C-alpha cells in the first residue's frame, strides 16, 4: 500500500484544491466513459469522492466466502476474512489485499483523514482509521456502492 502526498490524487481526479501528484493508474478513462459505465451513485462516490448514506449497502451484511472488488474496474480489494462489523453502517475491513489500494491525505470538512482509493483505477472507496481490531488496528471504512462482491 502506498501513501500518496497531500491529496494529489484528489486534485487529479476531481479538480480539487489540493496539490497535484504525478500518480497515474493502470486504468484510465475519460469522464464520459466513467459516467456511461457507472450508476449515478457509483459515479458520485468513485469519481467525485462522495459518501453513501450509512446502512444502505447490501454489502454491509455480506458474509459469504469471497472477495470485494472495485465497482469501477474489478480490481480485487478485500478478502472476506478481513471484514468485520464496526457498527458504523459501512462495510469495514482490517486489511486490504496486497497492492490493492492507495491512500491520500483528505483535508475536507475541516479535518484530516486518510482517503482510500483503488490502486488500479484511482476510484474513491472510503477512508481508513486507526480504531480497528487486531491484528492491524485499522478500520477501512468503505462505501459499499464503490465495490462489488465475487463469491468464492
Short description:
The protein is built from three helices and ten strands, in the order βαααβββββββββ. The chain has helices spanning 8-14, 31-37, 40-48, and strands at residues 2-3, 66-70, 76-79, 83-84, 92-93, 101-106, 113-118, 124-129, 139-142, 147-151. A hairpin with a 7-residue loop joins strand 4 and strand 5.
Could you describe the 3D structure shown?
The chain has 152 residues and is α+β, with helices and mostly antiparallel strands. Helix content is 15%, strand content 28%. The chain is built from three helices and ten strands; from the N terminus they run βαααβββββββββ. It has helices at residues 8-14, 31-37, 40-48; strands spanning 2-3, 66-70, 76-79, 83-84, 92-93, 101-106, 113-118, 124-129, 139-142, 147-151. The strands form two sheets. Strands 1-6-7-8-9-5-4 form a seven-stranded mixed β-sheet. A hairpin with a 7-residue loop joins strand 4 and strand 5. The longest helix is centred in the N-terminal third of the chain and has 9 residues, at 40-48. Residues 1-22 have low confidence and may be disordered.
SSE map:
Layout: E1 2-3, H1 8-14, H2 31-37, H3 40-48, E2 66-70, E3 76-79, E4 83-84, E5 92-93, E6 101-106, E7 113-118, E8 124-129, E9 139-142, E10 147-151
Parallel strand pairs: 1-6
Antiparallel strand pairs: 2-3, 2-10, 4-5, 5-9, 6-7, 7-8, 8-9
Amino acid at each position: 500500500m502506498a501513501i500518496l502526498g497531500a491529496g494529489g490524487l484528489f486534485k487529479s481526479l476531481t479538480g480539487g484544491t489540493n496539490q497535484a501528484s504525478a500518480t497515474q493508474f493502470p486504468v484510465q478513462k475519460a469522464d464520459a466513459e466513467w459516467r456511461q459505465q457507472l450508476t449515478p451513485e457509483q459515479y458520485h462516490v468513485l469519481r467525485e469522492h462522495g459518501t453513501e448514506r450509512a446502512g444502505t449497502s447490501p454489502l454491509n451484511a455480506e458474509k459469504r466466502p469471497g472477495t470485494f472488488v472495485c465497482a469501477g474496474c474489478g480490481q480485487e480489494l478485500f478478502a472476506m476474512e478481513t471484514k468485520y462489523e464496526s457498527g458504523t453502517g459501512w462495510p469495514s475491513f482490517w486489511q486490504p489485499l496486497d497492492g490493492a489500494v492507495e491512500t491520500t491525505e483528505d483535508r475536507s470538512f475541516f479535518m484530516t483523514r486518510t482517503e482510500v482509493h483503488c490502486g488500479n483505477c484511482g476510484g474513491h472507496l472510503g477512508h481508513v482509521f486507526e480504531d480497528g481490531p487486531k491484528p492491524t488496528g485499522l478500520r477501512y471504512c468503505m462505501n459499499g456502492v464503490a465495490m462489488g462482491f465475487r463469491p468464492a
